Every structure is written in C-alpha cells, then in structure tokens.
C-alpha cells in the first residue's frame, strides 16, 4: 500500500514558490520543498490529483492556481517508519492571492526563489532540485505555456 502525495511547482515572474518545512514535520523537516500534500480518499473520483494539488496549495500558502496543471514526473520513496510514498509533481500556474504561511505547524517560511537561488541553497534537498530542474526544463523548452 502506498501513500500518494502531490506537489506543485508554481512559477510566477521568473521565480518558483517554495516552502521551508517545519522542523516539527516527520519527513524532511527544515528543508525547502514544493507545496503539496497527501491525497485524501474520495471514493470514485475524477481529477483527484489535480484537485488535491490545487487544494493543498491554497490550504498551505493561500494562493489559487489556474486550471493549467501539467504532470511533470512521479517518483517513490520510503519514509523513516517504512511506509512507501508515491510522489507526483505538477507544473502549476499562479492565478490569484498573496502568498502567506497558513499552516505554521507544517511550514516555517514561504518564499519565491529563482532557479539559481534554489540550486545554491544548502537547505534544498536533491529531490526538490530534481523537481525544479524538470519544471525549468519544461518551461525553457517551450512546452509550458506559463
């Protein structure tokens, strides 16, 4: 059995939206991360992953994203307690709202960062760098319409 997690790589004005995870978090506390969260059970449902990433972004940082949500890639990892996680990353377009920390127990800081800032920050784990690399490549190759 897998936990299903989604994350949104939100791009706006040449910067990416990142959070610094709370040190209270059981996984990757204190690191920079994309905004996201676990998929809730809904029974039979359409577009559950896209709705979840949109909901999580609003719940955690208070902004809305556009309907343009593009699948980037998926990966899997193991939590410290042995649970398996499938992580799905989407490229998202900012729509409205002012970014702020709505979940202080989960998030210590919210920030917009350039590609270079993310890649050079010592708090950026390799999986966040991989997500930003793929999102940036997608945009720069003209495949994204952000």
Low-confidence stretches: none
Number of strands: 7
Strand content: 35-45%
Percent helix range: 10-25%
Order of helices and strands: EEEEHEEEHH
Instruction: State mean pLDDT (0 to 100 scale).
Output: 90
How many separate domains make up the residues? 1
Using the CA coordinates, give the radius of gyration: 14 Å
Largest sheet: number of strands, sense, barrel closure: 7 strands, mixed
What global shape is seen? globular
Going by CATH, the homologous superfamily would be Nucleoside Triphosphate Pyrophosphohydrolase
In the CATH hierarchy, the architecture is Alpha-Beta Complex
Structural class: alpha+beta
The first-to-last residue Cα distance is 35 Å
**Name of the CATH first level:** Alpha Beta
CATH domain fold name: Nucleoside Triphosphate Pyrophosphohydrolase
Number of helices: 3
What this model shows, in words?
With 146 residues, this protein is of the alpha+beta class. It has one domain (2-140): Nucleoside Triphosphate Pyrophosphohydrolase (Alpha-Beta Complex), CATH 3.90.79.10. Helix content is 24%, strand content 40%. It is built from three helices and seven strands. Strands 1, 2, 3, 4, 5, 6 and 7 form a seven-stranded mixed beta sheet that branches. The N and C termini lie far apart (35 Å).
